[in-house]
Amino acid sequence: MFNNTAKLIAGVDEVGRGSLIGRVVAAAVILDYSKPILGLSDSKKISEKKRLMLYNDILKKAKSWSIGYAESTEIDEINILNATMLAMTRAINNLSIVPNYVLIDGNKCPNIPIPSKSIVKGDSFIHEISAASIIAKVIRDRQMLELDSIYPMYGFAQHKGYPTVYHIKNLHKYGIIPYYRNSFNPVKKMLNKRTY
Fold first, then answer.
1. Which residues make Cβ contacts (< 8 Å) with residue 160, sequence separation at least 6?
2. Cis link prior to 99 (omega < 30° from 0)?
3. Which ranges in 45-186 belong to alpha helices (H)?
4. pTM over the 0.90 mark
5. Residue 173 and residue 2: Cα distance in Å, rounded?
6. At what angle do helices 165-174 and 187-194 cross, to 10 degrees?
7. Along the chain (196 residues), what's the average pLDDT of each consecutive run of 10 residues?
C-alpha cells in the first residue's frame, strides 16, 4: 500500500475513548524497518503478556515514539471526538522526528500540517498503527492500575474504566470521584439527579 522505504511514516492510535474516567491516550510511532518487530497486531487482540513484550520491543527498536493525552476535563469541554483528535495531535507533535506521512486508526484525521490518511481498523494490519495501539494501551492500562491503587473499591484494574455492570454498580455505590468524565452517561445522569 505504501512505499515504506521512501517515507517516515508515523502510525497513530488512541485508547480510552469509551471509558467513563481518565484521559484518552494517543500514541504515535515511527518504526525502523531495519529492526523488524514480529507479532504486531491490534492491541485488543493479543494477550497482556504478549502486549507487554511487544511494548518493550517497540520502545527499543522504533525510530521514534510518543504519547499525547487529553484530560477528562478537556473531554468534557470539547467532547470526546475533539479530545481524541487533540490527543493524537499532541502525540504527533511530541515525536522526536517529524514524519512526512501519518496513518491514523479510524475514519477521521486530526488537523495537522502533515499529509495523513485515516484507515478503519488500521491497527489490525498497518504495523505502525498496531505499534501505536500497543503503546497507548499499555500506558493507559498502567494509569488505570494507579487509579485502582488509590480507589480500589471501583475495580479499575479489572474494567479499566469502561462501563461494565460491575463498574456502574460501584459508581452508584461509592459515588463520583475526580477524573470521571462528567459529560458521559451514567456520570452525567448522577450529576443531574443532584440538582433536584
1. 16, 19, 140, 141, 144
2. no
3. 48-61, 72-78, 80-93, 127-150, 156-159, 165-174
4. yes
5. 51
6. 20
7. 65 98 98 95 92 98 98 98 98 97 97 97 96 98 98 97 97 96 95 70
